[in-house]
Amino acid sequence: MTIAMPKPDPAILARRHEIAEAMRRIVPGEGVVAEPVEMRVFETDALTAYRQMPLCVVLPETVPQVQAILRWCHENRVPVVPRGSGTSLSGGSLPLEDGVLLVLSRFNRILEIDLDNRCVVAQPGVTNLGITRAVEHAGFYYAPDPSSQIACSIGGNVAENSGGVHCLKYGLTANNVLGVELVTMEGEVVRLGGKHLDAEGYDLLGLVTGSEGLLGVVTEVTVRVLQAPETARAVLIGFPTSEQAGACVAAIIARGIIPGGMEMMDRPAIHAAEDFVHAGYPRDVEALLIVELDGPAVEVDHLLAEVEGIASANGATTARVSQSDAERLSFWAGRKAAFPAVGRISPDYLCMDGTIPRRELPRVLAGMKALSERYGLAVANVFHAGDGNLHPLILYDASKDGELQRAEDFGADILRLCVEVGGVLTGEHGVGIEKRDLMSEMFGEDDLRHQIRVKCAFDDRHLLNPGKVFPVLHRCAELGRLHVHKGKLPFPELPRF
Fold this sequence. Notes:
The chain is of the alpha+beta class. It has helices at residues 10-13, 16-26, 36-39, 63-75, 128-135, 154-160, 167-170, 204-208, 242-254, 267-277, 297-313, 325-336, 338-342, 361-375, 403-420, 439-442, 445-458; strands at residues 32-33, 56-58, 80-83, 100-103, 110-114, 119-122, 140-141, 177-183, 189-193, 217-224, 226-227, 231-239, 261-266, 287-295, 318-321, 348-351, 354-355, 379-383, 389-390, 392-396. The chain folds into 5 domains: 10-103, 2-Layer Sandwich (Uridine Diphospho-n-acetylenolpyruvylglucosamine Reductase, domain 2), CATH 3.30.43; 110-227, Uridine Diphospho-n-acetylenolpyruvylglucosamine Reductase, domain 3 (2-Layer Sandwich), CATH 3.30.465.10; 231-340, Alpha-Beta Plaits (2-Layer Sandwich), CATH 3.30.70; 346-434, 2-Layer Sandwich (Alpha-Beta Plaits), CATH 3.30.70; 445-497, no CATH class. Helix 14 packs antiparallel against helix 15. It has 17 helices and 20 strands. 33% of the residues lie in helices and 19% in strands. It is globular, with a radius of gyration of 23 Å. Its cofactor is FAD. Keywords: FAD, Flavoprotein, Oxidoreductase. This is Glycolate oxidase. Residues 50-228 form the FAD-binding PCMH-type domain. Pfam families: FAD-oxidase_C, FAD_binding_4.
């Protein structure tokens, strides 16, 4: 599988100076970056294997500026790529050579803290962890906690429907966002949802959450914050095999226990994280579970005993319960640092993201081991075991001929395996460009056409984040009536990739 972006439009490239000047009129001062050396920092996101320079970069500070940028680009048929902190692992914020990169990092203020209604209103550039920091003094927190929470923006979380280690019990971004303010490609401001529990009519908020920047640009987010639990304790459980750890996960859920978080790491990830963070992980096990229980102290104590019994019945060789909040946080520090930790043992890696039914965990782990041997590339496994969201880290060296291609093919086969066992292509990283050409593995042509019709309703010219998510770019004008006549497609001048 070779990932490619659509070819840039020469007519737009020829207008580079004109477009940059138009953006400067809208966002004066230092709000436009157009010099190649200065744009280099924006050439990629967290899917660093792929790099592409944008046409120009615009950093607005107000909603009217965002409206004016989108309206001008719509009228002049210039593509736009929305971007937050650039932590996307699927290439969702990868720039376009012939597109404006609309960066929302200056939208970085919390607008309102309303603890009576248990919500926070924030601009999209506020970091995920920044929301918790703003309310923790009052005993509240924001539940979704991606590993990149110190850097990732809440607007990007909405775009990708991000999760985190505590999403098993408390849900993904979609379960914690109450409302958004959205600017359409034509420059119209739309409000969806709000502080109220639910909104009438179609669930447009649910549609926008996870839409990967294809439907509009989010300029304000209202999120639900939760009261911190009375008690939270975590237990580290080691197993001789990954299959036994996977069986333990299934048994815990089958018992009706829903932990605050339940994560799994295999030997390569355990050793990398321990070397990096020194969290006290056991080194003599093949798989490690981190299980956190929260709630009233008496309930937590009871559930910990239950979990330890289940683990023992499934072959666990070690179990260590946190004795303080600092120790609990150290357990999680190792898990949350697993991605950068693996970066210390391999020149490059691809972080995959697929989700499977929990009961299929042993089968998929065995399948990944066989694929690792077939492709001759090592893999470290770190994942949200409780909800079946896998994050295999494929280790490779981009300086060696063919290794990136082998890593891509390996990753594609992992995702095909996830779909084969009844899972899905992505749990929280999004489709972006990474999984775009695998969409047909999961969806039929009719499914994809219906999805594209939704895109057309919001963005009929396909100017918002083109080249992402959909494996074949259909234009709205031809959707539903594309046919072949004497071996030729209509409108041959339109790009199809």
